[in-house]
Write a structure and sequence with these properties.
mainly alpha; globular; 68% helix
Length: 250
């Protein structure tokens, strides 16, 4: 932990605190669809960073997949009907995009020796401290309620969604995200994460009764198609095979 204190601190401040805080600020002054669209340009930022920093130039197929996924997001987020733009909101959303890109880049580092559960736990702890500080100084307004929460299937006590967000949407999601990013690499994992929008639509229907229209369904198919295209455009890496030990004649 001491050897990687800087990386862990950056993960907590950028991948957790900045991403959540900046997105909350963005949706306070602009349409949710526009804010989401800007934040979900993080995969493009990851590809550009790897190109500039490591010289990993994306293939034409990966670029085409990125374009397809971007078009799909535009359709899914339903912003083609015209939405209100706010310069401050755009800047906040761009900050969330930087935080999301940092999440994929830092999660992909498997050479640190930091277990995924440790990185997620410490990152969320730093994020909790950062968001609490933002609330204390008034940057992020906070309120508490013990009212029941209404869903499509009925109402539940306040602590049920709190536990669900803490255990499933935060702890489990961050741990699995780190593990999968280390297996897939930051570039591919960032595009696969675009399926979050598809999952959000599914849970929106199950919990809130919000059904996507035909245009959004087409957009979901384009997002998944773009992810597949990016995967096909990934450079082929030779499979490493452990050499067999030499036989020693007695």
């Amino acid at each position: 932990m001491r050897r990687n204190a800087g990386m862990i601190l950056a993960y907590g401040l950028l991948a957790v605190t900045a991403t959540q805080l900046f997105y909350f600020q963005a949706v306070a002054v602009m349409d949710v669809g526009i804010a989401l669209l800007i934040e979900y340009t993080a995969p493009v930022a990851v590809v550009l960073w790897l190109w500039i920093r490591r010289g990993e130039r994306p293939s034409a197929r990966s670029i085409l997949g990125a374009v397809i996924a971007f078009v799909g997001l535009v359709l899914m987020l339903d912003i083609v009907t015209g939405a209100r733009l706010d310069l401050g909101g755009i800047l906040w959303a761009l900050g969330a995009m930087v935080g999301a890109a940092a999440y994929f880049l830092l999660s992909a580092r498997s050479d640190t020796g930091v277990p995924p559960i440790a990185l997620a736990g410490l990152g969320l702890l730093i994020g909790a401290v950062g968001l609490t500080f933002a609330g204390l100084i008034g940057v992020l307004p906070m309120a508490w309620t013990t009212d029941d929460i209404a869903y499509r299937f009925g109402t539940v006590p306040w602590f049920v969604p709190v536990l669900a967000i803490g255990l499933v949407a935060a702890a489990l999601a961050y741990v699995l995200g780190i593990v999968s990013t280390r297996m897939l690499g930051s570039r591919l994992a960032s595009f696969v994460a675009l399926a979050e929008v598809v999952a959000a639509m599914l849970f929106g229907w199950l919990l809130l009764g919000q059904l996507p229209d035909v245009l959004q369904a087409i957009g979901a198919a384009l997002v998944l198609g773009g992810v597949v295209m990016v995967k096909l455009g990934e450079p082929q890496t030779p499979e490493l095979v452990e050499p067999l030990p030499e036989q020693v004649d007695e």
